Amino acid sequence: MRLSEDDVKLFYKLNPALLLFVNLRLGLRKEMFPHLPIMVDTVLMPFKHHVIYDGFIAPYSMTFGGGILCNFKTSYDEAKAKFGIITNLPFEPEEKRPSDSDLLKFYLKNQRNREIYWEEIQDLIYDDPGLLVVYHQEMGKSYSRSIKKRLREIGVKAAWFASLEGIIIANGKTKKEVETNLKQIVPADRLNHVYTFQFKGVGKKSSRL
């Protein structure tokens, strides 16, 4: 369960796992649940194109460890990718088919996903080699986080960088300078595998443009 000012987002474990967006108008308050996520016992029902609960909700006195929370996050992301967030009942699980590109991005989202879905990643790329571009861009985005962290640690000033398979292969003061350098050292058929990002210097948040 996640609480905001106006609504509750419930992770509702079914087979398959589903996410339901539950209206909060029956007086549920944040202070009732100081530790989130939390397991609760309640009855969900439809009401005027919303999902509501029956007015009674009983939280279980238990907490979740890091491993379980990681499993929740993985299940949450997978359910959202397959079914979206359910806003009305009754609901018949009808799996929506994301594009192969979106599916690959989900599989590559973090280290845990990459480990769980490694075979699926390989199958997607084998069936459509064109997805290698998506693979290298998503992996480049992931590698850039650790690269930026290390650049901050050693006090590097603001600059643009380009990486390929986790290795910095070019840099420059401007994006245009980096792109010019890349054309001189990277084969033309691999240029779209290169991930280019801006490092804004120590103490500043970097971005990919």
Overall shape: elongated
Beta percentage is 15-25%
> If you average the pLDDT, what whole number results?
79
The major pleated sheet works out as: 4 strands, mixed
What is the rounded Rg?
Answer: 22 Å
The residue fraction in helices comes out at 25-40%
**Count of separate DSSP helical elements:** 6
- Read across the widest sheet, the strand sequence of neighbours is 1-2-3-6
Count of separate structural domains: 2
Ends: how far apart?
34 Å
Low-confidence stretches: 1-8
Which structural class should the secondary elements be placed in?
alpha+beta
> Could you give the count of β-strands?
9
Report the order of strands and helices: EEEEEHEHHHHEEHE
Topology:
Layout: E1 2-3, E2 7-12, E3 18-23, E4 40-47, E5 50-59, H1 66-83, E6 85-86, H2 100-107, H3 111-116, H4 118-127, H5 132-153, E7 159-164, E8 167-172, H6 175-185, E9 195-199
Parallel strand pairs: 3-6
Antiparallel strand pairs: 1-2, 2-3, 4-5, 7-8, 7-9
General description of the model:
The chain is an alpha+beta fold and 209 residues long. It has 2 domains: 85 residues, no CATH class; 111 residues, no CATH class. The chain contains 6 helices and 9 strands, in the order E-E-E-E-E-H-E-H-H-H-H-E-E-H-E. It has a 4-stranded mixed beta sheet with strand order 1-2-3-6, covered by helices on one side. A hairpin with a 2-residue loop joins strand 4 and strand 5.
Key descriptive features of the protein:
209 residues, alpha+beta, 2 domains, three-stranded antiparallel sheet, 36% helix, elongated
Short description:
The chain is α+β, with helices and mostly antiparallel strands and 209 residues long.
